[in-house]
Amino acid sequence: YLETRGDVLLRNKEVFKFWRKIGLEYMFLGIEAIDEEGLKQFRKRVTLSQNFEALEFARSLGVTVAINLIADPSWDRDRFRVIRDWCQEIPEIVNISVNTPYPGTESWRTEARRISTRDYRLFDIQHAVLPTHLSLPEFYEELVETQRVLSMKHLGLSALRAAAGLAVGRLLRGQTNFVRMLWKFNSVYDPKLQVADHQQPVRYEISLPPAREERIARGSLYVHAAGGRKGRHIDNATEAFVESTRMGAE
Predict the structure, then answer these.
(1) How many CB atoms lie within 10 A of CB 32?
(2) What is the largest CA-CA distance in the chain?
């Protein structure tokens, strides 16, 4: 199992082919958006065509591919509907998370919108910490409905039969979590609970971001500045790979 970006996948096809040969079975691919505007908004520095090319290459490897998309708080109902429709048209498993600027990331220092909460608990990519276009309850209703559609996408008759077999086997061993997961989606993914999370007492406030910057030195975002080979013993090829896959590398 591994997680990767589309541009990294395309730059290192032979590496991924090799990993497939030695046992790679699952790939979590960060597509993030299905249009150019979304990719620019999330500052991914990859084109839509590159992402779709990466998806096609991942499929060609014969591995199970899961895709991640990012829901932005600016989305309206129509946008959520478009995303649901697109996800139903492709065979891959799709995960959807919420656009969340984190301290130490580029978007934390470049995001024009002010964060709407400083509650550290809500910075979990499942809550909106930026102002929403819809009302907060409406945003969570659409988000949870989208997650519900995506979770049920692969539960056809054959999948249900397989799930039933797994469920029986686990119940016979006294393991109930799998069965509870199958039937308790609505109690876990509940828009009312997510809204209520915003009303809980704040125990730890995240520090406010610094003044917004249009452009920043991306190297400054690293907790530890890159030191090249200093203190490391690696060959030229490995060093070249590390440098080429650093954030913002051309």
Answers:
(1) 21
(2) 59
Across 57-80, b (16+ Cβ under 10 Å) vs e yields bbeebebebbbbbbbbbbbeeebb
CA end-to-end span of the chain: 27
Half-sphere exposure of 248 (CA within 13 A, CB side): 10
- CA dist., res. 221 & res. 240, Å (int): 21
Task: Supply 21's token pair.
Answer: 């040969």
Q: Collect contacts of 219-223 with beta carbons under 8 A, ≥24 apart.
A: 219/248, 221/104, 221/105, 221/106, 221/247, 223/104
Q: Where are the domains of the chain?
A: 2-223, 224-250
| pTM listed for this prediction | 0.74
pLDDT digit string, tens, across residues 25-78 = 999 998 878 876 766 665 666 677 888 899 999 999 999 999 899 999 999 999
CB 139 within 8 A of CB 89: no
Question: How far is Cα 55 from Cα 46, in angstroms, rounded to an integer?
Answer: 13
Side-chain half-sphere exposure of 96, counting CA atoms within 13 A: 24
CA distance 239 to 230: 11
